[in-house]
Amino acid sequence: MHEMHEADFPKTAAQDLLPHGGPAHLVPEILDYTEDQLLCRARFPADSPLARDGQVQAWLCAEPAAQAAATHLGLVEIDRGTTVHHLEGFLTGVKNVRVLRALVPVEQDLTIQVTPRGGARGLFKYDFAVDLDGELVSRGQISTFVKTR
Amino acid sequence: MTPPSYQAQLLDRDSSALRFSLAIPTDSPYLHGHFPDQPILPGVAQVQICTELLAQELKIPVKLREVLNVRFRKPVTPDLACEMELRLDGYELAFTLRSEQGNMSEGNLLLADRLEIPDAEVSNHA
After folding, report:
1. DSSP line for A66-82
2. pLDDT in tens, A2-25
3. pTM of structure
């Protein structure tokens, strides 16, 4: 992944932008944001319903990637002057997700980069890449529907 | 005690396909926080259930090499009666999740290992 520079934005904005609660909220910290991409930290909590025996299949990183994409959409809306709080939306598709490592442990920091690839009428496409300690664990494409005003 | 994430029962099978009834209980851990005001089954959980049902029936771990293409068409809500059909062809696993509302999701997955659905009689005696 590219080295990015820290920008002027609230690092915890994802908590306000996403409607997810409890163990479903997987994106605790934004590392950097531009209109062209978002870099964030993510982790599966120990009580994640997606975890089995303390590990999560790497392709399931599509879920925090989708949350990262929604966060990016929210930040873009804020940049445009829109008040955004708990964006409504859901994952509509997953495509070409390569699994480069079988499992990722819970309670470990993952770094997720999402890059917008266009969209309209609330449907948006993103490329994503997830790494753990510098090792790429999965990458692919997601489509998400988000209600924007 | 943690409640089950889902309730599934095998309805029928042949050499290339398995069909299950599927429901997500209102207290399913999958729904915790997703979302607090409007619980729906996460899309990725539908794919996880698909691989777990196959693993359960084949009695071996099922690992994915690639998620080729999955479409989540309609939100799956708690207690919605669904059927999940799995079609296995070597390394390729296709799934369709249906309800009375129509197709809820479908997808094609590439497995890390070539798998076969054993004959039911053989499976019962394995």
Report:
1. HHHHHHHHHHHHHHTT-
2. 444 444 555 556 778 888 999 999
3. 0.92
